Fold these 4 entries.
Entry 1:
Amino acid sequence: MAGATDHLIIPSMAKTRTYFVCRQCGAMHTKWMGKCTDCDAWDSLEQTFSAADTHRPKVLSAGATALIDTDLPALPVSQIPDMQVPRIATGLVEFDRVIGGGVVPGAAILLGGDPGIGKSTLLLQVGQHLAAQSLRVLYVSSEESAPQTGLRAGRLGASSDNLFIYAQTNVDKIGEQVQKLRPHLCIVDSVQMIYQESNASPPGSVSQLKDCCTNLVYLAKASGTAVCLVGHVTKRGMLAGPKLIEHIVDTVLYFEGDSYHDHRIVRCIKNRFGNTLEVGLFRMTGSGLEVVDDAAALLVQSGAGSAAGSIVTACLQGSRVLPIEIQALTADSALGSARRKATGCDPNRMAMMIAVLEKHSGMRFLDKDVFVNAVGGIKISDPAVDAAVAMAIAGSHARRGLTPGSVVVGEVGLLGEFRPVASLAQRISEICRLGYQHLITGPIHSSADKLAMNSVKGKLSIHICKNIDQALACFS
Ligand code: TYD
Ligand code: MG
């Protein structure tokens, strides 16, 4: 990019010393132990041969576009120069939505996900969209050869001359290539396979990961090139390597989904340039990932919400409302202790809903296994899903369902009362737009919510319930 420096990074000399780093939390120990004393993880210490601080790269001088100007003295906040950097919208609407509207120049983004979920496909498509806007993109492939990546790019229809493919695993050479090409975005796929020559540890080890990531983040900050790193996740769903990679970068995205289904979700868990509430929805097709325009059709099957144990709710995910089907199953427990399993929603809130149903509605779940699932792989943290969870459990237990076309929205308190939910007006208008006819919710207090309620008169009948008992009376 114009204004970037010619010599960005010079790794300082390494001083060889042996120490042990925890693979889980990144804590450093001088001697080996079976258990990390910082995070209590067993068998997670890994021998490393160089002190971390000797590997910090030196940024010689930052160019005009550098985001970190280390020569600037401490200044009062009012005198800090305005650094309004325009975002680069990739054009992949759902990707832009998750990262807060577009890629910020000089930002470091980490994309994690299971192997085979579609990380390389997504980033190649992001690259292709940017290249089509005459922006330069460098795609560094450290796992596949250039012809292999080229073949995949061909399948995805990425043929722009602004998209450069570079098969490389040496981080210093990647830095040189970035200086030469000055791309707007540099994608490193994957960070676990690259290494720094001055570090004796193998690629993928904690110390290599830390060094390579730090190097690339410095490179991004000094050159203004946004860097997108791909990271694999472990069996437990964590990004392989220490949490400290997540601390180094600006944005952490997780690419989730089920390889047996075609839909994929990109979730943001950290974002220095936007909120972390948005999710991006994609569908994997034979020619790459497609943006999902109609989330309702993807997440809620037709006829959902009327069978016993199935309830449709309207969930707030960032700035949009998504209809989500909550399914529950209660079954006689064969074991001594009843099982409780929640997928996609908070298990603690599910336990609370079971207790509320037992206390206020006279149902008994002591000898029942209870399973609750938010269909579609979306993870819900919105408390407005409480009533739907409670009604799905009660519906399964009593073998009763709601009238077709019903939606349940409400936060339930410990006394079984319905509490006000956020953005009810937005939920009402979206439910109406999607063609649902009945809404079961709590008392409406705010004038915006009342206005929304009046505006859907005749199209959506709203049943206002004071508590969970009144909501349960809506079962047909
Ligand atoms: P990939 O992007 O290689 O995953 P990751 O980088 O996360 O390991 O995607 C691999 C899967 O995606 C593979 O199982 C095939 C599937 N796929 C499609 O269905 N359509 C396509 O157009 C492409 C490129 C991949
Ligand atoms: Mg890949």
Entry 2:
Amino acid sequence: MTQKNKTLGEFIIENQEEFKYSSGELSRLINSIRLAAKVVNHEVNKAGLVDILGAVGETNIQGENQQKLDVFANEAFIKTLTNREIVCGIASEEEDDFITITGRNERNENKYVVLIDPLDGSSNIDVNVSVGTIFSIYRRVTPSGEPVTLDDFLQPGNRQVAAGYIVYGTSTMIVYTTGHGVNGFTLNPAIGTYYLSHPNMTFPKTGRIYSVNEGNYVHFPQGIKDYIKYCQKEEGDRPYTSRYIGSLVSDFHRNMIKGGIYIYPNTAKDPNGKLRLLYECNPMAFLAEQAGGKASNGFERILDIQPTELHQRVPFICGSSSMVEKAEAFMQNTID
Ligand code: AHM
Ligand code: MG
């Protein structure tokens, strides 16, 4: 069998040994994310049929209550992750507090916590533009047998054991890492199977795409303004191309394939930026590094930040390594 005929299910089984605590649980956990992603994908693909199937809050022809897609995605992932004896806690962008899963006979013996942004970029749904799901997985730090605590979720990103995203785009893909590189799988919707379509994904060392919401330019820190001017300067392979979808997953995915940088800086209005450290930045940073790229807040590696709150925000600069280094140099004012 060639690499590319391989299904995600086969890939998970074959690579189970790579994982240092290999008891099969992490594999089963990724499997359950794969399953929930199919359910969400089916719903996302129907989003344009809202006038036909019924709008949010209405009851459709089958008697089902129509939900907002981000609520639907949140429930689909939580339900799937809860129904196995693997996950002891879930934190979601859609929930104020983390959820405790006590597991079989309420014994609190499950090992993993999952942090998830169930439907990122959801303002893009109504206009038929790609959205995504982002997930991040850690082993619990509190002793087995006790309910999870906030400490299980506030681990620095460098302790992640797996992370990934699903992009609901022109095709649906799941891209993930368990710390042994990054692999991408494309869903064949006709048969509901994901195939290994992008083995060993890597960021080109440099690129020509910068992705930032330039509408906020006047509020950006001077270092980011200077970096944007650098991207736009006519010199060498510049000016670069500006591409911004407004869905982190899609912008990241394109930049990883083509080479580029994604920036969501702090602004005068939002001193910590917009993106969430635990569900958005850490998983993307882990993927970026596993693919040979970098992720920084301008001064510090994202994965080394010690989180202090569940919904903490951080400035985020992520992508091809030499582009991130250049942006950091502008932020730190060390450019010559
Ligand atoms: P969300 O979690 O509310 O969907 O926000 C996250 C999204 C990212 O996917 C995207 O890159 C960014 O917000 C876009 O923000 P803006 O519209 O301010 O440029
Ligand atoms: Mg989000």
Entry 3:
Amino acid sequence: MIKAYTQATFIFLFICFTAVGNYVFAQSDTAIDKRVATLLAKMTLDEKIGQMNQYNGDWDATGPVTKDVGNKLDEIREGRVGAVLNIMGTAHVKTFQDAAMKSRLKIPLLFGQDVIHGYRITFPIPLAEACSWDMDMIEKAERIAATEASASGINWTFAPMVDIARDPRWGRVMEGAGEDPFLGARIASARVTGFQGDSLGSTDAVMACAKHFAAYGAAIGGRDYNSVDMSNYTLWSIYLPPFKAALDAGVATFMNSFNDLNGIPATGNSYLQRDVLKGKWDFKGFVVSDWGSIGEMINHGYVKDNYEAAQVAITAGNDMDMESRSYINNLKQLMADGKVPVSMIDESVTRILRKKFELGLFDDPYKFINAQRERTSLNRPENVEFARDMARKSIVLLKNDKQVLPLSKDLKTIALIGPLVKAKKELKGFWSLDVDPKENVVSLWEGMQKQIGPLTKMLYAPGCDITDASRIGFADAIAAAKQADVVVMAMGEKPDMTGEAKSKSNIHLPGVQEELIKAVAATGKPVIVILMAGRPMIFNWTADNVPGILYAWWLGSEGGDAMADVMFGAYNPSGKLTMTFPRSEGQIPIYYNHYNTGRPALNDNDLFYKSAYIDLPNSPRYPFGYGLSYTTFQYSDLESDKLTSTIKDNETISFSFLVENTGKYAGEETVQLYIRALVSQPLRPVKELRDFRKVRLLPGEKRRIVFTINRALLAGYNNNLDYVAHPGDYQLMFGSSSADIRLQKTIQLVN
Ligand code: NOJ
């Protein structure tokens, strides 16, 4: 978190930080504000507008590239660029920073990059990491990513993506934390803290960026970039909490979004950016547009041309223009025409420069450009080991009938079947950076090879392709299965079936893969299916018929070792889903925290006058919060610290209960607390996650878990969008998933 220091602490910190050497000194806000003001006073209008302009670099692009433009390095030397993106590696970054140092005022550039799940070491995709429910781990993963990225010249990541996602057709679900605002907020905070470290001035800290502001995840039909239409009540209750949490954690920047929200493009939305973010929330950092999103307001039909687009965007509070060139080409004229006051430009430039000062770039523009540090910071063995731990904590065990898992190391023959058995680069998933897959990614095959017993033989047959309809490989796969004691099938999507612009209408396990599973299962051999994907998929036959199912998402570079750890029981799976898995696309959007309706479907078979389908149950295939373990946990002995179950004023009431490991393996349970406001205006959902605890227990061990309830924990938005706890009855539900409530109690909140 960025801290404001008093003069005394300032001197103290100066001594400490210069002694450590790794830090430049953290300056007080006032000192920085003075330096910003002094610099601003020297800047021409062109130089100011230049600071608000961001270009893509000259290698990769993560959006539609603007063609036939002038030489970017020349523009940097002329002071016409404040930030660049997609430029990595100290040598390459240096070329650009050198150009900035030739500009009249030598204002250093920001180097932005989508460091979404690791930089050189690839961590599991964010949705997978979220399933760990482990805030320390998630924070540490970002710390490592920041350490590597900053050593390669990057000082700004376009992460975390904190969009709530209730629609698995949307390709970008892989980038977020899932469907829940409370968990999403906790994860947003952990990620920001991880990226930014103790202080933005640290040499290994990168600026984080909370994106996409706002409601991008609610695109109608799950189609990327599509319109969003929602009530302010839903916006505030469901979609905004992770953004607010990122802000409270000190996030340096926000990115707005491509979508229109209730008829106004988010990029030109004053309510979101001026009223909420910079007004009510008092955000001090700056807002960057998404790639080209200022210019795209023309396609939206919201403005006529880039001139109007620039006016609308800056007026709405968008400080920096990523790649649309609307600001650089129009702001000067807009000012001359009296349409944009200079104070507005000054405000944006002040916000941008403040971050450059906080990063320490004016003290040393080359602080992130150190080839020696780059060599020693990447792929550190302890970080690779951590990535393996993060990966195995992200795996969710969906089914384990008759304890088919873990596998014994005494098996004679294991058949590995499926198109993803030997996959390497695929395991990195979408939004991973360019790392040589041969060197850095461990496949499932390799991971299992390392862990099998000396007498075990592994057979391999791909069986089929991910999307191709050919069944030609089925015969070999069946033959391999017949020779084996156990079959492990690695199936799933292609990594580029999720990510930006990767929405799908059909989210079933693609191609003929489920047919292959049926054919192999028909051999009568025990089958374990490992599913890899960036979204919840649909695989009903497998779910009903195969005894063992693991959801492995895209686990990153150490995925193969992590999956083998789980297969052979070196790690007991503990992941819990953070997105609901539907039975059919027809159920989407599907999420646990829905309202009850006037005609709730209490029983799936009782369809008359119920809010239900006649051809499908309402229940999902796998609910939010669900995930099994090799062991079992029992909850018992609920008690409270008060004789009454009433909370008044600032009182609290604590509930505690025993969680016991009743199985044979040591394991970790994520104990979840849901609440329900039984009578409320406006309505509240049937369940709302409000707290959770992770508890690791040895076989037979039990521990008392305590949850403390206060007014804030019960609160929600009222019709005026004030966050308040209404007096009334609240049901507290303690469970192992949103659909597996083990203990409950009703309490009363009184005024
Ligand atoms: C577009 C994406 O929506 C955004 O998330 C990303 O940060 C930018 N492109 C830059 O790559």
Entry 4:
Amino acid sequence: MTFSSLGLSAPLLQSLEEKGYNKPYPIQSEAIPIILAGKDVMAAAQTGTGKTASFTLPLLQRLDNGERVKSKHIRALVLTPTRELAAQVADSVTVYGQHVALKSTVVFGGVKINPQINILREGVDVLVATPGRLIDLYNQEALKFSQVEILVLDEADRMLDMGFIRDIKKILALLPKTRQTLLFSATFSEDIRRLTDKLLKNPVQIEVSPRNAAAQSVKQSIYEVDKSKKTALLSHLISTNNWDRVLVFTRTKHGANRLTQKLQKDGISAVAIHGNKSQGARTRALAGFKANETRVLVATDIAARGIDIIELPHVVNFELPNIPEDYIHRIGRTGRASSLGEAISLVSADEVKFLSDIEKLIQQTLVREIETDFVPSQPVPITHLTDRSSKHKAAKKPTHNRKNSNHTRSSNRPKKRAY
Ligand code: AMP
């Protein structure tokens, strides 16, 4: 399979060649011909699968054949949940579209609105936007939607998680009814399905990895540890394993700040990104991490959305997320494209419910590890994939790996645990 066999035009093929992509990823082979044919698409695809190119390339080709954009108008709208993802999608539009004569721009909150108004005055073919700023611009009459031909909702599940449903509904009501709509989402909850029912016309459904399944290229495990020892264990793992680029997730902004400071005290370069940081600080933090100046990036779920760093080898969940789907999003930051990644979760006994929910979602019990000197005083209870009370087949027992440990453990059954 080649990009040219998918029906892409010469200018786009040239950009792909310059970018060094020689073969389409599965989502691209599936989605590109369908989108070129003008159909609505509903795609289950995580970040890292190549989904951005799968909608950007055909979108550019379709716009390239159409009418000129009028002042203050846009012809394609790509909505994303976060500023970071918006900036990344806009970068892709620029890169893939460098040999077609289309204008594109990106708008998001947290930066001045006037430069955005000025750019929109001339009209742009592709606008990448976060919902809040888009509505602000519309309210200031900087933007008209009557020329919109294509709408893309990227990471739709996350937009709903972040509470954008009202904004999205408001925007949808302003768009022309006749248009092509493409919806990408890592997971398909009931809420997403309700939204898609109204939004899409006879959509072609595309699924590149099993629904709600974690990326196959990610090696996943948990380290059982007491809550109070998590920071020390993380420092120890980073130092002894010589990890040079680690993305660490915390549940709260304060947690991210605290952990960053403690790692710095241990001599490990670390920086936090979260919603309380200015856009400039977030961009700088990300740039430092990408340039290998910072070893550890500590992020909250929302701030980490859309971070696109190829071959990010290690993702650590300092705490497990309380929404199981977030686990899939988090570990989707590693094992991206074709590289192998490792996702490690530091789990204390009080998090067993979160662990169990995640294991049920991904349909596998995670391998457990215990590090010498960090043997938990409160072990994490054993989890099962099915309800013990149900008549279904018994779950697989978790496998325990012991790293550098002289401790023995008699079995996986809770009552016989011996440390
Ligand atoms: P995405 O899922 O859109 O975030 O893409 C994941 C990563 O894969 C990005 O860094 C892309 O630049 C890269 N990528 C996308 N398509 C291809 C391809 N066909 N060949 C090589 N790399 C690709």
